[in-house]
Write a structure and sequence with these properties.
With 270 residues, this protein is of the alpha/beta class. Helices cover 36% and strands 24% of the residues. Strands 6-7-8-3-9-10 form a 6-stranded mixed beta sheet, sandwiched between helices. Strand 9 and strand 10 form a beta hairpin. Helix 4 packs antiparallel against helix 6 and helix 7 packs parallel to helix 8. The longest helix has 18 residues. It is globular.
Length: 270
Amino acid sequence: MTAPLLAVDALQVAYHRVAVALHGVSLRVMPQTIVALLGNNGAGKTTTLRAISGFIGLDDARVVAGSIRFAGRRIDGEPPHATAARGIVLVPERDKVFPNLTVAENLAVASSARAGAAVRRDLEALVFQFFPALAQLRPRLAGLLSGGERQMLALGSAIVCNPELLLVDELSLGLAPVVVEELTQRLSDIRRQLGITILLVEQNAGVALTIADYGYLLESGRVALEGEAAQLRGRREIQQAYLGQASGEERRSYRALRRAPGVERPNGRT
């Protein structure tokens, strides 16, 4: 049986040493798959990504229980430069690019010991194949790019680092549907052509479950549901709570919908 590339077990994270944000989160990411991490604001999605990437220490937070293993080795508590050297690259929700640098300069300053000069040249050429619009914008300051172009540049900067695991936080946030559709297709192409494993954090379940192989739903720092992406798309309570199909009713959380009369209880984690 193939071992997971990333294994998170019973992870607990506390902010300022007292406020617990994750309550025993466990998940698996198999090699060369796309896994979606879903949930509303405050569910713990970004905290999970930052714990995996090592950036959580910058938020005055730390792992207080559980473990994170990448390629079989424990990495919880490692700093960002150590996780990056292992091949884990984060595309954050905020501060995606250097606004005072050009597109070309943003790609040039993205660094990783995993990518030598020749590999970087090849990867940069692939960036412009995946995102042709960026090729025409090489001399433009990143601060003058549209939201979609910034997201393309952020993904491109991650690619030139030669990642094995790409962590993408809120790909669709604030972007027009047509732009989101293009970006999700590019993520699928990146996975297929480069063999990169992707953990995608999204509020928009419709976007994430379209390209994901597997999904986890977080609520209040816990895994409320998990399963194959196609199965999650078909669940009535997921459609109502996260896919905008509540028939005019106020959207409720997945847990609230589970308790509603007539809703089948899942066999997965609660």
